[in-house]
Amino acid sequence: MDTEKDGLSRRGLLKGAGKFAAGAVMAAGAIGFLSESEAKAVKEQKWPWPYVKLDPAKTAEVAYNEWYRLYCGGAVISSVFGQLRDKVGEPYTTFPIDAFIFLEGGVSGWGTICGSNAGANIVTNLIIGPRLSESDDGMLMGSEMMQWYSDASMPVYLPKDPKCKAEIIKTTSDSPLCHISVGKWMKASGKGLKSPERRDRCARVTASVAYHLVELLNAWKDGKYETAGEIPSECGITAQHNCTDCHGDNVPPIPPATTPLTSSAK
């Protein structure tokens, strides 16, 4: 299609696409996908989103049980946003929680970042938003959650009514990555990926993440939060610091630092 010949510019097409998208939202409301009030709520959403304090133990139980439906990332999001739907309403009511099932298994089963870490970062960045100060930075709280996950002896949280009654041993991943975290646990426990013990271990890890996430969010809401989050890429490359877990002795060299990637310089 020759857009210039037809009297259309690329900018005009983009503007038209934007108008079409906005119209589609309203049209969806008209034909039944969204009600008129829901369509209006989507249009008026502002970021960051409102937060009211939650009970960490209740949140963890929700996350544990939701793991068996949405797995790690979706369960963390559901445990927080599901409660906020009842306590706050919009914008949580129309947020598509179930869409984040793709975070399972380190994002679509690829073993990259543990879905519970990804889910926690989605929550912190929507609730806290961009950097306003050291204590008001969703990215730094997300980074703190990933460091905590890496350092903690997991799983921390013991569910009230475990679906798997066997003893679940604890391991320290020293990494926010799914395949490292799960792999170290499987080696230590001798249990396979599809075993009930491994599945329940990941459900408990997810609950542990949800519990600590709400602890931090509650402290932030009270004005008592001081971040321990850091941006690892400030060392010169976007990476965690224990590279040898994956690379052995063959660690790629770090190029000369240019502008460090931080929350305020993205």
| E-strand count | 2
Strand order of the largest sheet: 1-2
Could you list the spans in which at least 5 consecutive residues all have pLDDT below 50? Answer: 1-32, 258-266
Overall pLDDT confidence: 82
**Helix and strand run:** HHHHHEEHHH
How much of the sequence lies in strands comes to under 5%
Instruction: Please identify the structural class as seen in this structure.
Output: mainly alpha
Specify the biggest β-sheet.
2 strands, antiparallel
Report the radius of gyration as a whole number of Å.
21 Å
How much helicity do the residues have?
Answer: 40-55%
User: What does the overall shape look like?
Assistant: globular
Separation of the first and last Cα atoms: 35 Å
Report the total helices.
8
Describe the structure in brief.
The protein is mainly alpha-helical and 266 residues long.
Strand and helix map with partners:
Layout: H1 10-31, H2 36-43, H3 56-87, H4 115-127, H5 138-151, E1 153-154, E2 171-172, H6 178-189, H7 196-221, H8 244-247
Antiparallel strand pairs: 1-2
Describe the structure.
Strands 1-2 form a two-stranded antiparallel sheet. It is an all-alpha fold. The protein has a domain of 168 residues. The N terminus and C terminus are likely disordered. It contains eight helices and two strands. Helix 1 runs antiparallel to helix 2. It starts with 9 loop residues before the first helix and ends in a 19-residue tail after the last helix.
